[in-house]
Amino acid sequence: MSEPLWLIPLFFFAIAMGFFLGRREGKRRQRRRMASLSQEYVAGLNFLLNEEPDKAVEALLSSLEVSPQTLETHLSMARLFRKRGEFDRATLIHSHLLESGDLPRPTQEQIQLELAEDYFAGGLFDRAEEVLLEMLDQDCEQREQVTRQLMKLYEQERDWPNAIAMGERLIKGDAKIAPILAQYCCEEAEGQVARGELGPARRTLRRALGFDKECVRASVDLGRLEMREQSWEAAIAAFRRIWDQDRDFFDEYLDDLRQCYEQLEQEEDFIRVLADYSAEDPSTARVLLLSGQLKERYGDREAAKFIAEYMQANPSVRGLDRLIDMNLQVADQSEAREQLELLKQLTQRLMSDRTIYQCRRCGFTTPLLQWRCPSCRRWGTIKPRSEGDAKS
């Protein structure tokens, strides 16, 4: 019994040596794997730098196992490809991530959103919609973000009913969506009018005002729809609503308003409305219309006097141009007429060079009113330049 006792320390020594040697060999194998991985990864980067993206993707996918530790590397590479417009390669990486590994559900949803963005950026709207709708069906955790992506996608496709439907899912948590939905309604109403669906168009425009009571575009479109239907009083109500919504737009539609009153043979009411608005908040456009009425009733000199008095307090190029016109008609001396005609040429040049619409967000300027800024892509940010901007 005593002879085997000396073997006990030797037994433990052998176990320790085996563990040590095994661990060292394991580390060697790990270093070899890491070296191989490092070489393949560096090779992938070299392929990318040498403009060989297909080989770069192949090297990346073969060198890096999908795991939480390598996920960001895959995503960064895919975003790089998408930024460069190489959407098919970005799609390949994201699809590989979804097919490989055992990633947590939030991570899988993040990858699905990235994949939908690949399809969207590449113009494959049907594929993007398929991915996003599948996420909604699965009751995903990132439901709000998926809904916003779908809203953006339907907007891009000009599928206004579905864009509105997606927006309505978000409006309770984000009131800023409401003015955008009003613009969507106006876009849908334009299509309905073009198809001759005037009743549905009227309801859609009223729905727009339900989303955003300050939507000038809805009032304008509704006013012109009522004019088309010869519903003059309803048209007047729509155009006069603009005064309370945004006065900067009101003068843009004075001619429409004037036509409505003329159709009802209520020119006196129009003059009274115009005078009330001008007294509350004067503008050159309204004063020029009033001066036209004065000209018809009292002649050129009285009208010119009226404009001159207004111009002393509110100088503008348009007002000066009208004042010159009226004085040209009553000027007797040839020298005076010659000077007025030179001034007339100057004011015409100033007005023709002037851009009158500007985006409040990015400063983009345009000679035509657009309801969505072509530069910053914001809805409802372009407005007529204020009276002060047009002064000289």
TrEMBL record:
SUPFAM superfamilies: TPR-like. Fe cation binds at C359, C362, C373, C376. It is found in: Cell inner membrane. Keywords: Cell inner membrane, Cell membrane, Iron, Membrane, Metal-binding, Repeat, TPR repeat, Transmembrane, Transmembrane helix. InterPro entries: LapB, Rubredoxin_2, TPR-like_helical_dom_sf. Residues 23-392 are cytoplasmic. The chain crosses the membrane at residues 6-23. Residues 357-384 form the LapB rubredoxin metal binding domain. Pfam families: Zn_ribbon_LapB (PF18073). It is a single-pass membrane protein. HAMAP family: LPS_assembly_LapB. Modulates cellular lipopolysaccharide (LPS) levels by regulating LpxC, which is involved in lipid A biosynthesis. May act by modulating the proteolytic activity of FtsH towards LpxC. May also coordinate assembly of proteins involved in LPS synthesis at the plasma membrane. Belongs to the LapB family. This is Lipopolysaccharide assembly protein B.
